[in-house]
Amino acid sequence: MNDRELFETYKEQVYRLCYFMMKNRSDAEDICQEVFVKAILTDRSEIRELKAWLLRIASNECSSVLRRRKNGWTKELSAYLRSRPHASNPVEESVDQRETTMEFYKLYSILPDKVRMVFTLRYVNELTVPEISNVINVPEGTVKSRLNRGLKLLQSMAASQVKEMVGNESTL
Questions:
Q1: What's the pTM?
Q2: Nearest partner of 158 among 89, 110, 98, 115, judged by Cα
Q3: Which of 7, 4, 17, 26 is nearest to 122 (CA)?
Q4: How far apart are the first and last CA of the chain?
Q5: Tens of pLDDT, residues 119-162
Q6: Exposure string (b/e) for 46-84, b if CB count within 10 Å is 16 or more?
Q7: Is the per-residue pLDDT at 12 higher than 90?
Q8: Which of 34, 4, 10, 40 is nearest to 22 (CA)?
Q9: Cα–chain-centroid distance for residue 73?
Q10: Using an 8 Å Cβ cutoff, are 81 and 101 in contact?
């Protein structure tokens, strides 16, 4: 597969992983570009699973950037949410949709980086557990436990938010 075919075949999957990990379009584009530069400059003759290999490069690049910016998540998330185009729905529906999206991203961003990476690969890139294991180079059992841990964390965080909202409504 030549460089152009490699890019055209996998650009959307790599970008999607980067976008969901970084939550910022320009960061995702930069990292995606870096992934393909590295891939093009590397001898790919020994690589059997190009998709898994590219996604591993992307996940490593995202993890590196996230490690360097650990404390900047809140600023990036709010900038991302403010920069998103608004739908032309009726006002009430639009507000509800934005609030729901903000709450989801808030919960999602609280997840530990390793759990968020596995979630993104599973539910955004639609990889199987063995493929995720190959991409991030951990045992399949670790992938399963991270998925399970993430689901439990999201459920407990969502349940506590519902209790908080119900408590706030009863005081009105």
A1: 0.55
A2: 110
A3: 17
A4: 64
A5: 888 877 888 999 999 989 999 999 999 999 988 887 887 777 66
A6: eeeeebbbbbbbbbbbbeebbeeeeeeeeeebeebeeee
A7: yes
A8: 34
A9: 13
A10: yes
pLDDT-derived band of residue 73, with 50, 70 and 90 as boundaries?
A: very low
- Sort residue 138 into left (φ over 0), alpha (ψ -120 to 50) or beta: beta
74: pLDDT strictly greater than 60: no
Give the pLDDT band (50/70/90) at residue 15. very high
Are 44 and 57 spatial neighbours (Cβ–Cβ below 8 Å)?
A: no
Alpha helices in 23-139 (DSSP H): 25-41, 50-68, 73-83, 91-110, 113-119, 129-136
Contacts of 91 (CB under 8 A, 6+ apart): none
Q: Which residue is listed with tokens 């739908």?
A: 87
**Amino acid (one-letter) located at 157:** M
**46, two tokens:** 């020994």
| Calpha distance 114→81 (Å, rounded) | 23
Which of 142, 120, 119 shows the shortest CA–CA distance to 130? Answer: 142
User: Rounded CA gap, 101 and 26, in Å?
Assistant: 20
